[in-house]
Amino acid sequence: MRKVIIPAIIAKSQEELDKKIARLKGQVKVIQLDVMDGIFVKNSSIDFDFRLPKTGCSFEAHLMVADPVGWIRAHGDKVDTIIAPIEAGSPDMIIRMVKGKGKRVGFALNPETSVDEVKGLVSKIDQVLVLSVKPGFYGGRFIPGCLDKVRELRDLAPKLDIEVDGGMRPGTIGKAAKAGANLFVSGSYTVDAVDVGAAVASLKKEAA
């Protein structure tokens, strides 16, 4: 199964978003946009009418918003994959909307959320994101117990893309890979690295 390192961008303005994307261009195949509304989580990020440059990358939006349906209506055509918080509700509507746009769809599980919340949906979606830190900011403390959810999901759906987001760096990413994850989101370790390519390579090596 493909294993992919996905840098995650937090940005307060179009200028900051452009700068971070430019640093990642040519280094990775997928970039995650961390979208936060200041309601679902305390922070805010990419909560404006953003534009994405042509990079050769695909973009996934990890929505940490109280109204994912409204976001999808306004911005869903801009990205390739949309990951909504299962805690926000309306999963069937979200699946229909995103699939209707020809996009990939997934759901995110906060650290306190059980796999039971998505068990009935895995046959209809492309991926599940397991948050292994409290969402909202770069640099959160890795929560090892969240990897139990990765193991449960992999047993439940052997071909599902399972993504771990939070604290992914050398020393933790290998554990996530052994648990069954194949997509690994890394924020500050990659986006803020002096050498982005070297940071991504170090993660790829441990996740292999």
Topology:
Elements (H helix, E strand, L loop, with lengths): L3 E6 L4 H11 L5 E8 L6 E2 L12 E7 L3 H8 L5 E5 L5 H10 L3 E6 L17 E5 L15 H10 L4 E5 L7 H7 L3 E4 L1 H4 L4 H12 L1
Parallel strand pairs: 1-2, 1-9, 2-4, 4-5, 5-6, 6-7, 7-8, 8-9
Antiparallel strand pairs: 2-3
Helix pairs in contact: 2-3
What is the N-to-C order of secondary-structure elements (H for helix, E for strand)? EHEEEHEHEEHEHEHH
Name the quaternary structure: single chain
Strand content: 15-25%
Distance between the termini: 10 Å
Radius of gyration: 16 Å
Say how many strands there are: 9
CATH superfamily: Aldolase class I
Principal-axes shape call: globular
CATH topology grouping: TIM Barrel
Main sheet: strands, sense, barrel:
8 strands, parallel, barrel
Share of residues in helices:
25-40%
Q: Please, how many domains?
A: 1
- Which class do the helix and strand fractions yield? alpha/beta
pLDDT < 50 runs, ≥5 residues? none
- CATH class category label: Alpha Beta
Provide mean pLDDT, rounded. Answer: 95
The main sheet orders its strands as 1-2-4-5-6-7-8-9
CATH architecture: Alpha-Beta Barrel
Enumerate how many helices there are, as a single number: 7
